[in-house]
Amino acid sequence: MPYRLIIVILIFAVFLVFITFNLDNRCDINFGFTKITGVPVFITVFISFILGLFCTLPLAIHAIKKHRKHKELNTGQIYAAPIDDKIKEDAANARKKFFQKRKKADPSGGGYTNNE
User: Fold this and answer.
1) Which residue has the higher pLDDT, 10 or 5?
2) In sequence order, what are the residues at sequence separation of 6 or more whose Cβ sits closer than 8 angstroms to the Cβ of residue 19?
3) Using CA atoms in the order 27, 32, 36, 42, what is the torsion angle rounded to 10 degrees?
4) Distance, CA of 29 to CA of 11 (rounded, Å)
5) Looking at residue 11, what DSSP letter applies?
6) Which DSSP category does 32 fall into?
7) Among residues 61, 19, 60, 64, which one has the least CA distance to residue 40?
8) Nearest by Cα to 28 from 39, 42, 44
9) How far apart (Å, rounded) are the C-alpha atoms in residues 77 and 97?
10) DSSP readout, 49-93?
């Protein structure tokens, strides 16, 4: 079943119900230098929604470009250098060295002691 089509139809039905309930409701819009009177409320809401879409459009485009770039970089091993056993061994030794217990200074000033 085309779920997207059903969702779009439901959204338009809700919008249509909103319009029919607010046909008689009017509002005034003041821009500071001019005033528009008698504007239907549903037109005000619709224009506000469209302006909000235009404001978020640059953010959405940036997120899509960032996602595509990340996807292109992680698509395969074509550009990755082969990992040999020496590199794996060095990485394992570095992890072991990093997670070993740290030596603490002796409080009497006599050097370092192993904290065991």
Assistant:
1) 10
2) 42
3) -40
4) 26
5) H
6) S
7) 19
8) 39
9) 29
10) HHHHHHHHHHHHHHHHHHHHHHHHHTS-SSSSPPP-HHHHHHHHH
Per-residue pLDDT at 104 = 60
Q: Map residue 82 onto helix, strand or coil.
A: coil
Q: What digits encode the pLDDT tens for the residues 48-63?
A: 888 988 888 888 888 8
How many CA atoms are closer than 13 Å to the CA of 1, on its beta-carbon side? Answer: 3
Give strand ranges (E) for 1-116: 26-30, 35-40, 104-105, 112-113
**pTM across the whole model:** 0.46
- The β-bridge partners of 105 are 112
Under 8 Å between Cβ of 114 and 102: no
Identify the CA nearest to 26 among candidates 17, 14, 36.
Answer: 36
C-alpha atoms less than 13 angstroms from C-alpha of 39 in its C-beta half-sphere: 14
- What would the mean pLDDT of 91-103 be, rounded to a whole number? 74
As a residue count, the chain comes to 116
Which amino acid type is present at position 22? N
